[in-house]
Amino acid sequence: MSTRTVSVWTLVSLIIGSTIGSGIFALPQNIGSVASPGAMLTGWAIAGVGMLSVAFVFQILAVRKPHLDSGVYSYVRAGLGDFIGFTSGWGYWLGSVMAQVGYATLFFSTLGYYVPAFSNRWVLAIAVSAMSWLIFWGLTRGLRQAAVMNVVTTVAKLVPILAFIVLVAFLGFSWDRFTTDFWGDGSIPFGTQLKGIMLYTVWVFIGIEGASVYSKQARERSDVGKATIIGFLSVLGLLVAVSTLSYGVLSQEELAALPDNSMGAVLEAVVGPWGGVLVSIGLCLSVLGAYVSWQMLCAEPIVLMARDGLLPKRLSTTKNAQLLSTIVIQLFVVLFFVSEASYNGMVQLATIMYLLPYIFSSIYLVLIARDNHVHLVVGLIASVYSLWLIYAADPVYVLLGALAVLPGVVPYVWTRRANNEKVFNTFEWFIVAIVVVGAVVAVVGLANGSLVLE
C-alpha cells in the first residue's frame, strides 16, 4: 500500500473490518443479561458519543503528533511518562491476549452446539490451547494472513449479520414484544442496568482506535476524519440493529439464557435451524480469521516497548514476543477454565485492560489541546467517558485488572535498573501503590471466595 493512496471508502472498509469481530455474534445474550430495551437504547446513545470521542482522540493525536508511531501506548508515554506509558501498553497487550482466549472459547463453544465433545470444558480448554500453539507454530514458519483470507472473513461476518437484520426485521420482529417491560420489571434499577451494559458496548468497539493507523496513507488528512465518522456510524448502526431486533423476537429473560452464539439462536427462533447454521458458519470463519490476525498483532506492543527500552531487549524480536504472548494465552486458558470463567467474564476483564490506553491517551490530549477548543472538548468527553466506564465496571474486574498489571512491573523495573535509569518518580510511585493495593485485595478476595470471575 503506497503512501497517501488510500481513499475515503477504503478507509471506511478498513475501520469496519477491524472493528466488527466476534462480539456482535454474542451481543443479544450479553445485552439481554443486564439491560431492558430502554436501558439498551440509552446505553448505545452514551456509547455512541463516548466511543466516537475516543476514536477521534487517536485520530487527532495521529495528526498532531505524527512522530509518535509506536502504537497507541506511545501517546501515553509522551504525555505521562515511561511507567504510565508502559502500564498502558502492558494493559493493551494483556487485553489482546485475554481476547484471544475469548475468541477461541466462542469458536469452539459454537462448534460444541454441533459437535457435543466441545461442550466439555476440559476438551474445550485443550482445543483452545492446541489452536493457540498451532497458530504460533505456523507464525514461526512464515504464516501470514493472506489478502484472500481477509476478504473471506470480512464477507463471512457481514453476510450473516446483514441476513440476520433483514430476516428478523421482516419475519420475526414484534413491536408488542419489544415494548413489553421496555424499562424492565423494576427489580433492577435503571442505573444498574445502564452500568451493566457499558463494558459490552466498549468490547464490540475495540479496534475503532485503529483508524488513526491509516492516517499516513490517506489521500487527504481530512479523509481520516470523514472515514472515522462514516465507519463508526456504520458499525454503530449494525450493533444497535442487532440489539434492538433481538428484543423484538425474544424476551429479555430468554435472551439472557441463550448460548454464547446468541445471534444464531435468535435467527434460529425466527427461521429455523438453518438460520443458526448460517450465523455459526459466519462466526467460526470470522473468529478464526480474527484469531490469526490478533495472534500476529498482539505481540506488537511487547516488541515496541522492548525497542523503546521499557522491556528486556530480547523481547524486541517478533518471534520472542509471539512466544511470550502464546505462553500467557496458555496461562489464561488454565486460569479461566479452572475458575470456570464464562465468555462474558473474559470479555469484561479484557475490556478493563483495553481501557487503560483509552483513559491515558484522552488525558494526554486534554493536556496538549489548550490551543484548540474542539480538540479540548473531544479529549474531555473521552476522558470523562473512559473514567466513568471504570466506575461502571464490576469492581471484581477492576481489582483483577490490577492483579494482571502487577507482574509487568517486574520486567519493567529489571530493565530500568539494567539501563541505569531511575525506576519511578513520585507520581509513578503513587500509581504503583494503587496497583499493589488493588492486586492484594484481589488475591485476598480470590483466596476467601469473595471475588469470583463470572
Automatic annotation (TrEMBL):
Any idea which UniProt keywords this protein has?
Amino-acid transport, Cell membrane, Membrane, Transmembrane, Transmembrane helix, Transport
Task: Give the record's membrane topology.
Answer: Multi-pass membrane protein
Report the principal subcellular site. membrane
Q: Tell me which InterPro entries the record gives.
A: AA/rel_permease1 (IPR002293), Amino_acid_antiprt (IPR004754), APC_superfamily (IPR050367)
Q: Transmembrane ranges?
A: 6-27, 39-62, 74-94, 122-139, 151-175, 197-215, 227-250, 270-292, 321-339, 345-367, 374-391, 397-415, 427-447
Q: Which GO terms describe its biological process?
A: amino acid transport
Q: Which GO terms describe its molecular function?
A: transmembrane transporter activity
Stored Gene3D superfamilies: Amino acid/polyamine transporter I
**Where is the protein situated, by its record's location annotation?**
Cell membrane
Which Pfam families does the entry mention?
AA_permease_2
One GO CC annotation? plasma membrane
Protein family: Belongs to the amino acid-polyamine-organocation (APC) superfamily. Basic amino acid/polyamine antiporter (APA) (TC 2.A.3.2) family.
Write the protein's name.
Amino acid permease
